User: What shape does this take?
Amino acid sequence: MHFENTHILLGVTGGIAAYKTPDLVRKLTAKGATVRVVLTDSAKEFVSPLALQAVSGHPVSNDLLDKDAEAAMGHIELAKWADKLLIAPATANFIAKLTHGLADDLLSTLCLATDAPIYIAPAMNQQMWHAKATQANLTTLSQRDVTFFGPAQGEQACGDVGPGRMLEPQDLADLLLPQKSPLLLKGQKVTITAGPTREEIDPVRYISNHSSGKMGYALARAAKELGADVTLVSGPVTLPPPADINTVKVNSAKQMLDAVMSTIKDCNIFIACAAVADYRVQQKVDQKIKKSDDELTLTFVKNPDILKEVAHLSSPPFTVGFAAETQNLKEYALGKLQRKKLNMIAANDVSDSKIGFNSEQNALTVFWPKGELKLEVADKQLLAKKLMLLVEQRYTEQK
Ligand code: C5P
Assistant: This one.
């Protein structure tokens, strides 16, 4: 019970997942937090205010112009009371309102009136999640330091399958109120690569891949929570740099290698999470290539293998690689572990569209020379925590 003095304002908007919010309130109060709930009008269609009042032990607010509620605790007072504001489930409509700063009901007004950090658990149909407007809103809100938890992939109330399910109450409670991590990596230097690399062809074109950087960024945060001194070497991604983490932005594999090597001398743990382009064009052209010919032939040369170079240093740090595979997961991962001389490799099956590149969730099987462990499907931040704890364990045993 670390959270006795933590005030959580839970905003519930009108999605089917609202029926899970009494359980969410219980999971938050079980950690010691005090929870007050604000419902939008449409949320009341999915969950009973009385149920939320009973589990939170506080009156539930809904109306900006409710004289009695305002007399008990005015909306500005409520906004100031909150240490964290969680909106779960957050509909596409509410996310759009938040993006544009509307204040036409109590919950949207509170979002503007609070200086507490805002966390959002989206829940919507997968097509609405993929809609360009929703995606643009998410980017804008992420740049304003709003944190997103999920959504999870899977079957939806409407029968569709895809991203848009609200994370389960226990996962949301653990993400919002994380168990204080013991500082197991205090004094240790950890370098992590993340995201794709971008290999230029001419001044306006490049080749790259779909890596979002989410897993590497989540690992950087998890290592920081364990007390490590973290350097994140990131390829081009749209994620904001994580707070309090030294983030070095690069484009190409060669730049990534240089940035990594400049940190590696006193580095204790190196985690290569980046999806480094295997090849680059042999000769970048200085002027834009014109489409004068019917065919264009480009010659590619192999990029340096950053992970392998680090692992083959005379006194290498503890090295961890990733293997994204579509078949023979174990065999290929073990092959890489040996060939690259790694201490550990985390393999994921990218043929499963529910996990991996660009998704909010991932599942990994981790291999080391004499063991393996399966980390089941989870939000990338929760999974990153589990993986970092495993890395720390193996690293400490090996020292
Ligand atoms: O051989 P493969 O590309 O599948 O290996 C994947 C692992 O190697 C990942 O950890 C990735 O970050 C790392 N890697 C690297 N430099 C490369 C290619 C891969 O660090 N050029």
Notes: The chain has a mean pLDDT of 93. DSSP finds 14 helices and 19 strands in the chain. Residues 9 and 36 are 5 Å apart (CA to CA).
